[in-house]
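User: My collaborator sent over this chain with a note saying "see what the structure looks like." That's all I know about it. Can you take a look?
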Amino acid sequence: MKLLRFILVLVVIAYAGWLAWPVLSPFLEGASPGAASMRAGAEAGAGGLPTAVLWIAAAVLYLVAALMLGSGNPKAAIAYFLGFIADAALRLALDGGSVGGEIAARSAEAIGPATSGLGIDPTWLVLGGLLVLGGLVILVSRRRRRHRTPGQLTI
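Assistant: Without extra context I'll predict from the sequence alone. Here is the result:
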């Protein structure tokens, strides 16, 4: 179960990094700090303030959920599903906006070849995959109680 938890932590961190990449990439490309912050602000603010807040909140909540899951905190599922709600709002409710449309386009590009013959919208497949991942986060983050007989030492 520890190996599964470790793999889930890596997957959630990787997804949070992929989600935040358009905002983080100007800082990692070697541009001057002023130019990088202007490019990152333009990326995040392209769809307006609510979109930027949802985008950053989703990435941060996924990262917090991964850190909580790594430490064994059972409340990691709450942080994960709050991030999932923000991510779903970006993908579905704000799909016409530039940021929501860009995330949907990046998702379609990433899993498009695998779903080309199915005729299913990649947005729904990604959300379904994130929901399954959330179920695994719930499964792994549950505390397991050990029943000990009186007088048995803890290990």
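A starting point for your reply to your collaborator: The chain has a mean pLDDT of 80.
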